[in-house]
Amino acid sequence: MITKELINTIIEEKLTSDECYLVDLKVSAGNKITVLIDSLIGINIDYCIQISRLIEGSLDREVEDFELEVSTPGLGQAFKVHQQYVKNIGRDIEVIPLEGAPLKGKLTEVSDECFTIQEEKKVKIEGKKKKELKTFSHNYKFDEIKSAKLIISF
């Protein structure tokens, strides 16, 4: 039987030695294996092919047939692991907290327990006619949010 633990054991050493990390790993009941990998400097298609061949070479299709997909997380997908937050420091993200309204801002800091985003917002200043742009800092613990994802801008 093909399990997540088996696939993880196959690729763990290679990913670690190449300074890459596992974002998500799924093995469905029909042996459809989906592996999402990334690194702080990004992953190219050739590296996905290397990981795919490593997995295929370690499994025997004669014993158990499987479908395999190795890729990087999509641009619009929510962050799943801590390293994705670290990779995106300095970029704009959208955070959906467990309580409260969604918030967009620049990811400025990431620690083991939480992260900080800076939101720029126009606010009314007493005694002035025009609204002024102010920066607000928001700290979130990872367990206080539903999701966070990169905002794509062109």
TrEMBL record:
Residue stretches making up the Ribosome maturation factor RimP N-terminal domain: 10-75
Main location: cytoplasm
Gene Ontology CC terms, in alphabetical order: cytosol
Keyword match Cell membrane: no
SUPFAM superfamilies named in the record: YhbC-like, N-terminal domain
Entry similarity comment: Belongs to the RimP family.
Chain's role: Required for maturation of 30S ribosomal subunits.
Name of the molecule in the record: Ribosome maturation factor RimP
Species annotation: Plebeiibacterium marinum
